[in-house]
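Name: FAM3B protein
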Amino acid sequence: LRLFGFLLMSLAAWHLGSFAAEHVPQNALSTAALQEIGKKPVLRAPAPKRQKCDHWSPCPPGNFAYRILSGGGKQRKAKICFEDEHALYSEQRCLGLLQNLMCVPWITSCAIDSTDHSREMMDFIRKAPEGSLLLMATYDDGSTRLKNDARKLVEELGSKEIKNIRFRSSWVFITAKGFSLPDNIQKEKINHSDQTKNRYRGWPAEIQIEGCIPRNLI
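Structure predicted for FAM3B protein:
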């Protein structure tokens, strides 16, 4: 009786194996497929949406986005962005050793050489209409030929660091003409050259500020 039962079970197993071989796809029982059995589904987060001026998070509704990045050494130029509009950089020489200056809504910027253009920079600032934003950044060196009266003019616009800028200091600044910016936004930052800390040979690391400005101020 036991032998009969064993033969019956063997015959049933053979028929079941033949059925599986004919009707189950060959790749259905692959090693990879068997390993996936019992695993929890992986939830993949969607790729983050790019924000204006490469902010990590969007500005609240009714706000402008801005980002100012200083230059780093001679190879990495400064970048000024306002509402995803990037100031254009060329080899045109102008505006003095504050090497990039952007006026909103009239967007203007340029790169300069080491000659003295402090007077032209001062004229540009003075002619900017009331209700304008001014965004500034250094590239390479922004101090050696910067005249004291130009420093004083930028200081009158609210800069606390322009008087401290030294040879090859990295400096960024945002200010306004005719109105005040909110107290809770970062308006200025500076990083001095230090041979023991410089990221690049002879130059400090880039620095940046970014934030959001209520549209109803402009």
